[in-house]
Design goal:
The longest helix has 25 residues, at about 70-90. The chain is of the alpha+beta class. The chain has helices at about 55-60, 70-90, 100-105, 225-230, 235-260, and strands at about 5-10, 20-30, 35, 40-50, 115-120, 125-135, 155-160, 170, 180, 190, 195-200, 205-210, 220-225. It is about 25% helix and about 25% strand.
C-alpha cells in the first residue's frame, strides 16, 4: 500500500515556546473511477497520526508535576474517540453519500459493511484504519428509488405468445423510459446511463442493474465508490487538515492543563 506523508505544523502558544512538535498524517493511494458493474470490491486504507518532536517536549514538560507525556497521551485518546466523526463530516462535505452509510463505517465491522477503527495506539501516535465495500448508488440520493409504473401513451404491437390468453398479436403499452440518477460528487447529479434499470436485489431492495451481454442476461449491479475511496479522494485534504487542526487545539488545551 502506497503511503503519502504530509506534515502540518501544530500551533502551540508562542509565549510557552513549546516548538518542534508537529502532527503528521499518512494515507493510502486513492482508487479512481465512479461506476462499474459486477461484484462488490473490498477496499481499505489508513491514516497514521504521529507527533514528531514530541520527545523534546516531553523532556521539557516532565519537569512539571504531570509531565508532557500526559498531554500527548490525552491528545491521542481524543483522536481515538473523535477522528471517526471528523472523517464522516469531511466525506459529506464533498460527496452526496447518505448518513446511514457513514454511520455503518463507524460501527464494528460486519459482512458487507464498512468499518473505521483506531489501532496501533502509542503514546505519541495512532492509526485510523478504514475498510469497506464499494457501495451501490442507493446511498447517493438515487432517484427514482423504485421502478416507475407509468406507461407510454402509444401502444405497441408484440407477438401474442408473450402474453397468456392472447392471439397471434397483442397490443400493449410498454413502460415509460426513465433514467436512474445519483449524486456521487456533491453538487453534481449524474445519470447512470440510458441502459441502467431498477430491479429487486438481494433482500428485496431496488438496485440499479445493467445488461452485460447481448441478450436479456446476464445483468450485474451498478456500484460506485466505497468509504475508503471517498476518504482518499476529494475528502482527503479536508480530513487531513481537520485532524491536524483539531489535534493541535486539543494538545494545546492539555498543555495548558499541565502548566496550571
Amino acid at each position: 500500500m502506497t503511503k503519502i506523508r504530509t506534515v502540518f505544523p501544530m500551533c502551540l502558544p508562542s509565549e510557552k515556546n513549546w516548538e518542534g512538535c508537529k502532527f503528521s498524517t499518512g494515507r493510502s493511494k486513492h482508487m479512481g473511477g465512479l461506476f462499474y458493474t459486477g461484484q462488490s470490491r473490498r477496499t481499505s486504507g489508513s491514516f497514521t497520526v504521529t507527533c514528531s518532536g514530541a520527545e523534546d517536549i516531553v523532556k521539557r514538560l516532565n519537569k512539571l508535576e504531570n509531565g508532557g507525556q500526559t498531554a500527548i497521551k490525552k491528545t491521542v485518546n481524543d483522536f481515538m474517540s473523535r477522528a471517526p466523526a471528523w472523517v464522516s463530516k469531511g466525506i459529506r462535505e464533498h460527496y452526496g453519500v447518505d448518513t446511514a452509510a457513514i454511520n455503518e463505517a463507524k460501527q464494528q465491522p460486519r459482512r458487507g459493511q464498512s468499518s473505521i477503527q483506531v489501532a496501533g495506539v502509542q503514546v505519541d501516535s495512532a492509526s485510523l484504519i478504514y475498510k469497506g465495500r464499494t457501495l451501490t448508488p442507493t446511498h447517493f440520493k438515487m432517484s427514482p428509488k423504485s421502478r416507475p409504473s407509468a406507461q407510454q401513451k402509444k401502444p405497441i404491437r408484440i407477438p401474442g405468445q408473450l402474453i397468456a390468453g392472447a392471439g397471434d398479436v397483442a397490443m400493449v403499452r410498454p413502460p415509460r423510459p426513465y433514467q436512474v440518477k445519483a449524486t456521487i460528487i456533491k453538487g453534481s447529479r449524474v445519470s447512470l446511463g440510458s441502459n441502467v434499470f431498477l430491479t429487486g436485489g438481494n433482500g428485496g431492495s431496488m438496485l440499479p442493474f445493467q445488461k452485460t451481454g447481448r441478450g436479456r442476461s446476464p445483468i450485474e449491479a451498478v456500484r460506485t465508490l466505497s468509504v475508503p475511496q471517498m476518504i482518499d479522494g476529494k475528502a482527503r485534504q479536508t480530513i487531513e487538515t481537520t485532524i491536524s487542526e483539531k489535534l493541535g487545539e486539543r494538545f494545546n488545551h492539555y498543555i495548558d492543563q499541565v502548566m496550571k
